[in-house]
Amino acid sequence: MSQKILLVEDDADTADFIAKGLDEAGFTVDRAANGRDGLFLGTDGGYACIVLDRMLPGLDGMAVLAALRGAGLETPVIILSALGSPEDRIKGLTNGCDDYLVKPFAFAELLARIRLLIRRGAPAAVAETVLRCDDLEMDLLARRVRRGERVIELQPREFRLLEFLLRHADQVVTRTMLLEGVWDYHFDPGTNVVDVHLSRLRKKIDEGEARRLLHTVRGAGYRIGAEP
């Protein structure tokens, strides 16, 4: 069952991009383009997280946040803002937001923060220098990849792509996440760059192997892991 996110953002392009990425990640997104509508929807409850722009027409984000907290709503709130000074961040956190993300930001980071707030209380992940999936091993320090005893030679972009996939092993990774996390694109370039590189990577990893590890999840994205 998908979780609901409330997105309160007045810039249509930014809102479209965030909503598309959240939808690909399996969330249901309700949108508001001004503070008053955002407050109305937010107080209705039922949201796993609220993503709230700070500078909004009608009622600014800080006023919306204060009203939500004043109403006793404990839904996690992430403030988005171009105002990134320490004083601005402190003001947001003091007024009751759970996280504060400065624009411009990477969608993959926003998604990670949303997931972290939703599963609040889970132990933090330990930094790793060797990533593994089945018999595939990536040594980040030696910059070496092996599958069993076979050494796999990768180009720098392929290495980054595989690292990103392994850090999300057994999870569905969307095109939006890959474009931002591997290519640093904060927009969809409208090309098949992701598909081309994944095809090359799949050939290097899976060709000649009894078990496939890199899978396409139709209509959702890609996953690295054992076959279901």
Would you mind describing this structure in some detail?
This protein is of the alpha/beta class and 228 residues long. It folds into 2 domains: 4-118, Rossmann fold (3-Layer(aba) Sandwich), CATH 3.40.50; 130-224, Arc Repressor Mutant, subunit A. Helix content is 38%, strand content 21%. The protein contains 8 helices and 11 strands. It has helices at residues 12-24, 35-43, 61-70, 86-94, 107-118, 156-167, 175-181, 193-206; strands at 4-8, 28-32, 49-53, 77-81, 99-102, 130-133, 136-139, 144-147, 150-152, 214-217, 221-224. It has a 5-stranded parallel β-sheet with strand order 2-1-3-4-5, with helices on both faces. The protein has a 4-stranded antiparallel β-sheet with strand order 6-7-8-9, covered by helices on one side. Strands 10-11 form a two-stranded antiparallel ribbon. α2 runs parallel beside α3 and α6 (156-167) crosses α8 (193-206). The radius of gyration is 20 Å and the shape is elongated. The two termini are 20 Å apart. Residues 121-126 have low confidence and may be disordered.
